[in-house]
Amino acid sequence: MSNINQRQIQKLSPTLSPQQIQMIKLLELPTVQLEQRIKQEIEENPVLEEDISPEQKEEEQPPQEISVEEYLKEDDTPSYKSHINNYSKDDKQRPVYLSNGRSLHEYLEEQLGFRTLSAKDAALASYLIGSIDDDGYLRRDLESVADDIAFSVGLETSAAELERILGMIHELEPAGVGARNLQECLLLQLDSRKVNTRSRRMARKILTSYFEEFTKKHYEKLMARLGVDEDEFREAINEIKRLSPKPGNLYNEGGSESMPYIIPDFILDYQDGKFDLSLNSYNVPEVKVNKRYVEMIREMASGGTYNLSEGDKEAIQFVKNKLDSAKWFISAIKQRYNTLMLTMNEILAYQSEYFKDGDMSKLRPMILKDIADRTGLDVSTISRVVNSKYIQTQFGILSLKTLFSEAMQTDSGAEVSSYEIKNILSECIDNEDKRKPLTDETLMDILNIKGYHIARRTVAKYREMLGIPVARLRKQI
Description:
Elements: H1 18-28, H2 31-44, E1 48-50, H3 68-73, H4 104-112, H5 119-130, H6 142-152, H7 159-169, H8 182-191, H9 198-209, H10 211-215, H11 219-226, H12 230-241, E2 266-271, E3 274-279, E4 287-289, H13 291-300, H14 310-350, H15 352-357, H16 368-375, H17 379-386, E5 390-393, E6 396-399, E7 407-409, E8 415-417, H18 418-430, H19 440-449, H20 456-465
Parallel strand pairs: 2-5
Antiparallel strand pairs: 1-4, 2-3, 5-6, 7-8
Helix pairs in contact: 1-14, 4-5, 5-7, 6-7, 8-9, 9-12, 13-14, 14-16, 16-17, 19-20
């Protein structure tokens, strides 16, 4: 057996302090979540308070470990005004209120209230409505729903009974809600209309008997099986195209998360050839240290720390810890502001031509490392700044992620953004013959002729990023 011994090993390993971790977490937060995080900190730390009428104050030094005696020597506890002066002193700042409308589920419940149902049927219908996804589909099998109802509500039911209740939900608006798959969804919508034309009857036959062929766009085979000409078939397909694949999205008054509000983190103005960049902190609370707690320490320690009881010493230590925590939190907010502004200013300088008018052709190739080198920050820090952040410009609200793109080299040796490649692909596909859509190989050849040498798999990747299906699925008659 080998002998067991002990030895000392000296090594370097990076560690993050709690304050650094706090700063990183704050850096990742967009404006809306920062507002919630500050309010949460104010609730948890009694030393912090919201500054109702803040004033410009001197910059405070980076916080350090401070003893009780140093706290007692301080004449005033500095505060940090986290609000950015985006407005003049005459502007009265008002909070922005966002109101939510009815969600899809609330709308269905409202319609259900107009029906005469027994107490059990009403409870089962309400549970089924709650199981419907935001896009209007019921993606759980009825056997599982029946088991859940028995367990959570205490009602014994069966899949057959739930099928009957689901039939009532299928009669509600929007048409197609509660469907379990796309085929059922389209058929429910078609049945809600009067099937009184040849094209609608043919559309129903296609969805009922030839749904798989229809989804794969085997149009020639379908026309042969249905025994119709191209014009009649086109009319039937147009009837199907008028239906919605996601009926839940048709009824959205703001209560659904499928269309969230976007609040920009940066505001950029461009006037008279000059940029004006500011951090949007319109609704972010302004925080400061509550000076009453420093006065409390002074009063408790006025007779000397040696004369204090054990309980008083614990109280002073508790307040001191809260003061340290408050100072670190305020400093982290300040660091967040400096880091965000430093990064965004470098992005603005790098993409200044693009920000003047929003012309995508002027967007330079840019990766995270380019901005990291210009700011002196780590790539991971730039990634945290860019993630989930938006900027409001004169031509719309943009995600910072969309400003970054890979560089492609042309035959002339010039570097262009991958957005230029995507624009060419979009134009080619928009102008293609829909009867014979361009394949990825053909698109690759077109790009090669234009001087952009990329592989077919790269073309496929860009096409998928643009949300464009393969050639077979783009075929039309």
